[in-house]
Amino acid sequence: MDRYLVFGHPVRHSKSPFIHTLFARQTQQELEYGLAEPAVDEFAQALRTFFAQGGKGCNVTVPFKEQAFTLVDRLSPRAKRAGAVNTIKLTDDGVLLGDNTDGAGLVADLKSHGVTLGDSRILLLGAGGAARGALAPLLAELPSELVIANRTHAKAQQLAAEFCDLGPVTAQTYEQLAGPFDLVINSTSASLQGELPPLAPALIHTDIAIYDMMYGASDTAFISWAKQHGARQTMDGLGMLVEQAAEAFTVWRGIRPGTKQVLRELKRNLGVI
Ligand code: NDP
Question: What is the pLDDT of residues 137-156, one digit of tens each?
Answer without folding.
Answer: 999 999 999 999 999 999 99
